[in-house]
Each structure stands twice: as C-alpha cells, then as structure tokens.
Design goal:
- The protein has a single domain, classed as Rossmann fold.
- It has seven helices and nine strands, in the order βαβαββααβββαβαβα.
- It has helices at about 10-30, 45-50, 80-90, 110-125, 180, 200-205, 230-235; strands at about 1-5, 35, 65-70, 70, 135, 160-165, 170-175, 185-190, 225-230.
- Helix 1 (about 10-30) packs across helix 2 (about 45-50).
- The longest helix has 23 residues, at about 10-30.
- It is globular and about 45 Å long.
- It starts with a strand and ends in an 8-residue tail after the last helix.
- About 40% of the residues are buried.
- The structure holds 6-phosphogluconic acid.
- 6-phosphogluconic acid binds near residues 39, 40, 138 and 144.
C-alpha cells in the first residue's frame, strides 16, 4: 500500500499515528509491542512528534520494546549513531523502561555485535521467528534500506537475523537486520520523502526486479503488511508513464 502525503510534516504525523496504532493493537493482542527503528534523517520528525501530544499520551510506553533495523558502528554519542538520534528526538522524552530499549553497540566489533544482537532477538522472541510488530525503514537514493547496501554480501544472507556489513563508500562498518528477518515482521513501513528519492522510488516500485542493485526490493513481508509513506516530492515519478 502506498500513501502519499503533501509534505514531510504530514507524512511524519501519519507515521507517528501508525506507530501508536500498531503499538496499541499489538499490546491488545499480545501484551507487548516490538518495533525496529530506522536511522537517517527522514524519521527524525516522526520521532519528535511521538514525544509530543497527542501521540505521547496515546502510546503504551510501558509495553513497548525498541530495537534498531540497523546501526552505524560508531560510538553511541557519535552524531552518526541511529540510537543517539532516536534518543535525542524521542526515547529520552517518553517513559519506555530502559531495559526495553535495545540499542545495537557495534563500534568495537561489528561481527560479534551482530551475533549478540541476533541472540538478543532470539531471546526476545523465545526462539520463535523474529515477528517484530513493526519495522520502520528508509530508502537510500542508491536503493539501500536499513544497511542492506547494493552489492554487499549481506544481501545473500539467509541464515542469520543480523549481520555486519562494510559500506565502502562510507568507509564504515554497520550492522543490519537481514531481509529474511525484516520480512517476518507483521508490518513494514517505509518512509521516503523529497525529490532526491523520486527516481529510486520509481525503480524500486515499478522497475525490473534487481535486488542486488536495489536492495529495498528484497523487502517483501512473508505474511505481514508492507506500507510506503511518501510525500508528493518523492512520488512525482510514480505517474502512469511506461517504465
Ligand atoms: C541508516 C538508515 C538508512 C536510511 C536511508 C535513508 O542507518 O542510514 O537506516 O537505511 O534509512 O539511508 O536515509 P535518509 O532518511 O537520511 O534519506
């Protein structure tokens, strides 16, 4: 499902409402809500809104468990840290119990951190499949999502839920949830905004299947729902013109 919003602000308000709605549905059905957060810039405003009324007053914070879809392997206080961004904008301002926030610390040893994160997820899901209630994703202008970057070995990973990845163009290690893990989620929501995403969004959604070049195409929830929240600028190439 693709939802187009006039601008980033209205997209962010819709995303905040989606998160609160999914949280309340999950808590009503299973007593808890698990979400994997995206990093980057697009979700910042959504996270800020979640710390403000009305969203702040509507969410079951005490039943919420926060994971990350990916993390840069930098110190927690590094401006590039996805966990730092989420804490500054949102998590430090709402009463989620600290033990229910599961940051991914991989600054020292990416491979070991990926194994530890996978073990943490396996424990959380009591050795069943990683059915996160919600995974938030962004879309890079090169077609990556989470830290599933074009041409990297992690795109072929099927045996693990989390894996390290070296992003040469950034000279940076990251750890990411793998596509098979993300595809177990009950809901996967992509947030994409701005003209810079229009071309890649058109390729991902309407172009030929080429997940090695466009890893976002790997995201096809096994039984869950896939929703794209985009703004008009990102949607501008999604007209009916033949691909
Ligand atoms: C990250 C993100 C990444 C992001 C895209 C889009 O750690 O960088 O998880 O997948 O979602 O790069 O980033 P923007 O929202 O900044 O365009």
């Amino acid at each position: 499902m693709i939802e187009v919003y006039p601008d980033l602000e209205s997209l962010s308000r819709a995303a905040a409402s989606l998160i609160v709605t999914q949280a309340n549905l999950a808590v009503a059905a299973r007593g808890r809500f698990s979400v994997a957060l995206s990093g980057g810039n697009t979700p910042r405003r959504t996270y800020e809104l979640l710390a403000q009324p009305p969203w702040r007053d509507q969410a079951p914070w005490d039943r919420m468990h926060v994971f990350w879809g990916d993390e840069r392997c930098v110190d927690p206080d590094d401006p590039r840290s996805n966990a730092r961004m989420a804490r500054e904008t949102w998590l430090d301002h709402v009463p989620i119990p600290g033990k229910q926030i599961h940051p991914l610390h991989c600054a020292q040893a990416p491979a070991a951190a990926a194994r530890e994160y996978e073990a943490e997820l396996q424990e959380f899901f009591a050795d069943g499949p990683p059915c996160l209630d919600l995974v938030l994703l962004g879309l890079g202008d090169n077609g990556h999502t989470a830290s599933l970057f074009p041409g990297t070995p992690v795109l072929e990973e099927t045996g693990h839920w989390a894996a390290p990845v070296y992003v040469a163009e950034q000279d940076l290690y990251r750890v990411t949830l793998t596509a098979p893990c993300i595809n177990q989620a009950r809901v996967v929501a992509f947030l994409a905004a701005g003209t810079g995403k229009a071309a890649v969004l058109r390729e991902v959604l309407h172009g030929p299947r080429d997940p090695g070049r466009l890893p976002a195409q790997l995201i096809q929830p096994q039984s869950g729902e896939l929703v794209w929240l985009i703004d008009l600028e990102a949607a501008v190439r999604l007209t009916g013109e033949p691909f």
